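User: Can you predict the 3D structure of Amino acid permease? Sequence below.
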Amino acid sequence: MEKDNQKLQRTMTSRHITMMALGGAIGAGLFKGSSSAIDMAGPSVIIAYLIGGIILLFVMQGLAEMAVRNSHARTFRDLVESILGKYPAYFLDWIYWKMWVLNIAAEAVVAAIFIQYWLPEYPIWILALSVSVIVTVINLLSVKVFAETEYWLALIKITVIVVFIIAGLLLLLVTFGNHTAVGFSNLTKHGGFFPNGSTGIITAMLVVIYSYGGTEIIGVTLAETKNPEKVVPKAVRNTLVRIISFYIIPFLIIVSLIPWNEVNGVAESPFVMVFKMIGIPGADHIMNAVILLAIISSMNSGLYGASRVLYTQAVDGLIPQIFSRLSKKKVPVYAILICTSFLYIGVIISLFAGSKTFDYLMGSLGYTVLFIWLIIAIAHLKSRENMPEQTSGYKVKFFPYTTWIAIITLCAILIGIIFTTSIIVTSITLAIYILITLTYIFKGRFTKSKRA
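Assistant: Sure. Here are the predicted C-alpha cells for Amino acid permease:
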C-alpha cells in the first residue's frame, strides 16, 4: 500500500486530461504517419480513419463506464483485473508500457527529422538526444507543471489544425488572385477513390490504429484526477469529437489538394506541403514548428503514461519498490528515469537506422494499440456481469451492441493486418508478447515457491 506521503496527488482537472488525451493522439501518427497511410489507401484513407474513429468511440465509452463503476481504480490494471483476472491485466499493463516507451523513442526520431528541416547539417541522433532531454526535464517537474505544459502544447497544435482546416477549405473552394479553386477532383483522379482496393484500407488500418492510440491514456490518469467518476466521462465526450474532426477533415483536405501519389517519398509532412501552397511567407516554417511542438507534446504524454504504469506495478509489489518512490514534487522519479532510458535507446537505433527508425517502430506499435483496445472492449463486455444495474452515473447507450461491434471489427482488422504487414514486424511483436507471458508464468511460479 502507498504511504500518505508517497501517494500521487489528485491535481489534474477535466481540461488537463482532455488535452492530455489529445496530446497523446495528435502527434507523429497524424503529422508523419499521414504520408504512409495515404500511400497505402489513397483518398480512401478517409474511410479508414472514419472506421478507426467509430471503433475508438465505442472503446472509450466502455472505458469511461468502467471508470465510473470503479472510482478507486488508478490505472487500466485496476479496471481490468477485477473483471478479466490477473493475466489479462498484467498483459495489458506491460503492452501499454511497451507501447509508450517505443512510441516516445519513435517520436524523438520524428521530432529530429522536423528539426532537420532547419538544421540539415546536424545528424538525427544529436537532435533526437536534445529533444529527449527536454521531455525528461518536463516530466521530472511537478504533475501540475507537467499538466499545464501539456495543456498549452496541445492547445497550440489544436489551434493550428483549425487554421489548417480553414486555409485548406479556402484553397479547395475559393478562387482568389492567381489561385484557382482546386475542388475535389483529386479524390477520383490517379486511380480512383480506392486506388489500391480494399487491401489498401486494411493495410492502412495499422497506421490508423497507431495514430489514434494515446487517447486511452485517460485510463492511466485516474489516480491523479479530481473526481474521476465525473471528469473521465466528460473528457471522453470532449476528446472523441475533436479527435475524429482533427483527423478526418484534415485528411480530406490533404488528399483533395495534393494528388495522393505525390505525398509519400517527400521528406516534409503533407501538412507543411499544404501550408506552402497557401503562399504566406514563412508559413511552412510556422507549420513545421507547430508539428515539432505537437510531437514533443505527444512524447510528454507518453512518458507520463509509461512511468505511471511502472509506479503502480511497484506499489503493488510486482516490480522493485524503488520505482514507487516519489520526489518532493510528488512524481515517480525513478519510474520516469527508467522509461526515459528507452528514449536514448531510440537515439542509439537512429544512429544506425536514421529516419527509417520511425517506420520500423510504427508497425509494432499499431499491433499493441489494437490489443489494448481489444482487452478494454472485452473487459467492458463482461463488466456488467454479476453487477447491480446502475441507477445513476455514466452509462453506455446501446450496450452490448456497440461493444460487440468494436470487438468484431478489431478482430477483423487484426486478421487483415497479419496478412498485409511485414513478417518481421509481426514476428518481433509476437516475440515481445511471448516474453511478457513467460515473465508472468515465471513470476507466478516464483511466488508459489517462496510461499512453500
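DSSP finds 16 helices and no strands in the chain. Confidence is low (pLDDT under 50) at residues 1-5.
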